[in-house]
Amino acid sequence: MNGAEPRLYGGQAVLEGVMMRGRRFMAVAVRAPSGEIVVRGEPLAGRAYTARWARWPLVRGVVLLWEQLALGTRSLVFSANVALAESADAARQVDLPARALWGTILVALAGATALFFVVPVLAMAYLDRFLGSAVLSNLVEKGLRLGLVLGYIGGIGLVPDIRRVFQYHGAEHKTINAYEAGAPLTVASVRAFPLEHPRCGTTFLLLVVLVSFLLFTLLGQPPLVERILSRVLLIPVVAGLAYEFIRWAARQYHRPLVRTVLAPGLLVQRLTTREPDDAQIAVAIAALRAVLAAEEPEALRRTAATVS
Predict the structure, then answer these.
(1) Torsion sign across C-alpha atoms 229, 234, 235, 236
(2) For a tag on the chain, would you pick the N or C end, based on fewer CB atoms within 10 A?
(3) pLDDT tens-digit series, residues 187-215
């Protein structure tokens, strides 16, 4: 990279494909049943990407999480369309109506909030009678929450189709690792890079549990209704703090202490990634190359990659 620090790109695995996003552009690449790689890209031009307030510390983490949910949902719909459409052109033209998109996101958020935030609090309404301190109470609550998260991830990982999504997740990580190391974006080059990445959403979830423990411990052991409301209403604060930490840690990952702190999160990524095959890596490369073509043409030329 000629000594220049690479931009930070992120992504998400979808059905038979990968979505990659930068600051101003996103692209999703999907392997069609015919074997063709279908790529769809679009600029990121909404207020969440252009407004100055969207880049404020703490706020930007919540904005990014919300937009990632929207982009991820649309990318999942597109990937499903590629598998069902009669032609690649037809797949590119299908989109999810805005009302259906936001309705899907709100239902998913409500379900996740109920399962991972409300259920542990309800359990603590019974367990608190056996616990003598707010610290211990919050520690047990976070243990329950972490157990639910890991159990859910481990459970869905047993589904064959989800295992393939986890392979594409691994391909996404390897491709971003290769780009950030300044390596050529070829299948052979990308394959040599690790499955883990410090900015992964799985590590983010683990940090959310840790940050929530530190924050909620300060609130003590409030009554049940107040405890539920505090967990739900403070989700944006927890997410913002966790994002700022993971953003800082990713840039300081060369430091041994930071690597040690992030080690549990990287270990948990083994639940959500699988070793990809060459065809899956090629799809991830195609998605990142589409974003680079829009944002960093010079960087794209330096990769000198050929995707098949």
Answers:
(1) positive
(2) C
(3) 999 999 999 998 898 888 888 888 888 88
